[in-house]
Amino acid sequence: MHNFTITELIDGLKNRVFSSTEITQHFLSRIKTLDPAFNSVITLTEDQAIEAARLADQQLAKGDSAPLCGIPVLHKDIFCTNGVRTSCGSKMLDNFVPPYDATVVENFKTSGAIMLGKTNMDEFAMGSSNETSFYGPVKNPWATNSVPGGSSGGSAAAIAARLAPGATATDTGGSIRQPAALCGITGLKPTYGRVSRWGMIAFASSLDQGGPMARTAEDCALLLNCMASYDQKDSTCVDRPVPNYSANLGDSVKGLRIGIPKEYFSEGLNAGTEKAVRESLAEYEKMGAELVEISLPNTGLSVPAYYVIAPAEASANLSRFDGVKYGHRCDNPKDLEDLYRRTRAEGFGDEVQRRILIGTYCLSAGYYDAYYGKAQQVRELIRQDFTQAFEKVDLIMGPTCPSPAFEFGSKGNDPVAMYLEDIYTISTNLAGLPGMSLPCGMVDNKPVGLQIIGNYFDEARMLNAAHQFQQVTDWHTQAPEGIES
Amino acid sequence: MNWETVIGLEVHVQLATKTKIFSAASTAFGAEPNTQACAIDLAMPGTLPVVNQQAIDYAVMFGLAIDAEIGKTSVFERKNYFYPDLPKGYQTTQLEQPVVGPGTVDIQLDNGDTKSVRIHHAHLEEDAGKSLHEGDFRSGVSGIDLNRAGTPLIEIVSEPDMSNAQEAVAFAKKLHSIVTSLGICDGEMSQGSMRFDVNISVRPQGEEKLGTRTETKNLNSFKFMEDAIHLEVERQIDVLEDGGEIKQETRLYNGETKVARSMRSKEEANDYRYFPCPDLLPVVISDEHVEQLRSKLPELPDAKQQRFIEQYDLSEYDAGVLSTHAAIANYFEKTATHSKNAKLTANWVSGELSARLNTESLSIGQSPVSAEQLAGLIVRIADNSISSKMAKQVFDGIWNGEGDADQIIEKRGLKQVSDSGALESMVAEVLASNQAMVDDYINTDPDKRKKKLGGFMGQIMKASKGQANPQQVSQILAKKLAELL
Fold first, then answer.
1. Residues A165 and A73: beta-carbon distance below 8 Å
2. What are phi and psi of B4, to 5 degrees?
3. Hey, how many other C-beta atoms are within 10 angstroms of the C-beta on A406?
């Protein structure tokens, strides 16, 4: 049952092959049995899920046609869930129970989906390996000595291990695409402003974007159909109709112009990864697409620009965690400053503290122009790179990340090495463009991800291209050893 | 040595919007602590601000009223600092691109001259909450009330164009008059609706270079502001004359104890690390919208004063007094329309009514005497139905809720006797029963007889129980006495 895609589960529910209660019970029991090995779920909402499934079955019996009625999903623990602890992977919010739902969570409820629980993540979404979580690292189901990627490592690992057919995730610099690649699943980061950020705990507000993860592009389209909305509660949300992302999946890619940025195939790219990606591009050629070499000359500046802008915004976004209103508070503060110092020293992990310090430094008097101001200029250059590229091509493709999943601790002492993990994904966040990753090969029995970057609001075309690829390849159907049955 | 004082003001004006600047919580004053603070005001994780268009419109209206440039694109920024009553750890405000650019405010000096005070800019921002250090709180523990957090403010920053306390007060009062006339602020100083920060420096007469300034913060009455300026100017002159130096610092003035103290020095000042708020898009104001607001702008105090002079034939002084406060001006106009006697109405509104309201600490809106009621009274004064002395009794009656002027005149039998036949016989009767006074009058030197008239008048008015029309009585009396000579 857990090998079914969402599309197949919807059919099964409609045709009464199984009930929502049955599939919900099945996934809950898989999480309870298998997840201790992966640590992908922080909070299991079993009773709520069973109750919601019972109601969904009643709705289904009445012929309810809510698009995801009865389909179980997991939410990344960055999305606020009314009455359910939302930790953001941090000790700071270990005790935080929001009295409201994120718009994304609300949209899933409206679509009839069942929440199974909340997934593990890097603390405040700051990390590319899931090693910064207060709840311990998530293990990659393909190789438990390796990282699942981050920050949405819990969601990606859970889908790879067939603990849920789909999940929500967020992407600030690659946090959907990189774990999707490392765990061999499909994930999409929409155009900035496509999915509401209301109730999604902010890391870097101008870069954060929620998106779906599933095993296939077809499933991602279904999830995005309900996830995307215009939301007046988020001023940066774009008021633009949500298309039916499932409508054109079957279109041919014949004549599609695919840009191949030469900067994405340079030094630092793992040979096996490169081979897998090149072979995938050849598949597209076979399907009639046209490959066009392009240049995104400012790619090399994206990581340094990102590591100024994201920490700068984070340093302000995380100021609200001060021990005054909610979340962790240190014991017996002797005065206000002691309250602030100890609460934040105890509540935040090392990586979060490092980024707060970097961000604070970059915004300080005398440094602002050299860092934040300059980074904003670079951001504009990167945006222009893409604008020019999209005059010549319809989509851009390349590797999602430089290499397959690395082993735990292998980059622990070198933050910059870790930051370079996002070199191919960060530019799209800086430009606000949509990007996705889909499985396209294996290296040493570890998955490789193909990245597709689209023009603004061109998610439908990306999903179409990804779906067509998945019609002629079977990388997306492969499962890690030992979890199939 | 002669010293010259230089003063600039920063004025915080609470905008009279129903809801907060970034949330839908109410801004009403005086509610139980923390009952008017929603998740956004509390800076709950994942919440996002949405700007209140009314606040922007009010700021633009102020800009139009002072003939300022309106920022076509204004940008909200984050001003970062930690304080418990600042829930997000930053204040959302404007810095580089404020909504209102340079403008001017004309003030009237005591000598009748007009002085222009330049406005550097005015920007929109959110208010903080309140820390409660007294009352129920144990020593070392403070309470926080976030009802005020997120209340929209405009901060109006003047150039250092004022040279003494009188000018500063005149400027402050003029701003009060403008914002209340516009209806963008309720002007309730005691509730903190307007608060003044005063920048003060002194320099030797004739010196070009500005002296080091201090900033006295958060003065919430004109009187406190005036006292605080006098005190600070004296202090600075004393320090300089003793050979000392002025330290750049922020000072607090206690209006009750009339003592000021240093709050923090320049060295202790925060580095606020301003940067554009990524949760809010730049506010774009179209020319069309500005013109729409301009067309709906109410009459401003200066224009109103001019109109009162022309339309009601009032003196410049009376017109000034009556046009300063929109509510008083409206009351005056309403009364004058009904009474059809502007001069008398002006006297009563700025005289008896204002004095009484002052004594009882009531605003014009709380006046127990309605405009219609006052007009009713004035009509009876103008048609000589009652004397001005009786009018005061009738006014008291109306004030105490005994009814309209005519009802009170009727009930108390106050109607003035103007029937000349009745008055003639009344005068004759008094003369006949006071033969000694008449003899004395006749025997008095003709030049000094005038002084004796008062005695007769008193007797006659007494006999008429005060209801005789004094002008008529004095004419009849003069005629009758002349006949006796």
1. yes
2. -120, 135
3. 23
Question: Which two tokens mark B324?
Answer: 């300063």
Report chain A's terminal Cα–Cα distance, integer Å. Answer: 9
Q: Is the ipTM of this complex over 0.90?
A: yes
Chain B hits for A206, CB-CB cut-off 8 Å, are 278
Of A433, A326, A285, A309, the residue nearest A371 (C-alpha): A309
Which residue in B49, B82, B140 is closest to A235 by CB distance? B49
Backbone angles phi, psi at A319, to 5 degrees: -65, -25
Q: Give the residue from chain B lying closest to A371, CA to CA.
A: B275
Residues of B in contact with A364 (CB under 8 A): 271, 273
Could you tell me the pLDDT band of residue B451, with boundaries at 50, 70 and 90? confident
Report the CATH number of the B420-484 domain. Answer: 1.10.10.410
> Are A319 and A205 contacting, i.e. CB atoms less than 8 angstroms apart?
no
Least confident of A35-44, A59-68, A466-475: A59-68
Interface of B with A in 141-180 (CB under 8 A): 144
A175 as an active site residue: the answer is: yes
- Give the start-to-end residue ranges of the domains of chain B: 3-290, 299-412, 420-484
Distance from CA of B79 to the nearest CA of A (A): 9
First to last CA, chain B: 73
Question: Tens of pLDDT along B173-185?
Answer: 999 999 999 999 9
Task: Work out whether the CA dihedral A166, A172, A177, A180 comes out positive or negative.
Answer: negative
Q: Which of A297-301, A329-333, B314-318 has the lowest mean pLDDT?
A: B314-318
CA distance B82 to A340: 9
Query: Who contacts A153 (Cβ-Cβ below 8 Å, separation ≥6)?
Result: A40, A120, A121, A122, A129, A130, A137, A138, A147, A179, A183
How many angstroms separate the CA atoms of A158 and A149, rounded? Answer: 12
Parallel/antiparallel/unpaired status of strands B194-204 and B214-219: antiparallel
Of the candidates A436, A399, A397, the residue with the CA atom closest to the CA atom of residue A276: A399
User: Given this structure, which CATH class describes domain A1-485?
Assistant: alpha beta
Per-residue pLDDT at B239 = 96
Beta strands A186-189 and A257-261, pairing class: unpaired
Query: For B390, phi and psi rounded to 5 degrees?
Result: -65, -35
Q: How confident is the model at residue A485 (pLDDT cuts 50, 70, 90)?
A: low
Residue B279, chain A, CB below 8 Å: the answer is yes
Distance CA A227, CA A103 (A): 8
pLDDT tens-place string over residues A74-127? 999 999 999 999 999 999 999 999 999 999 999 999 999 999 999 999 999 999
**Which has the higher per-residue pLDDT, B95 or A418?**
B95
Virtual torsion, Cα B357, B358, B359, B364, nearest 10 deg = 20
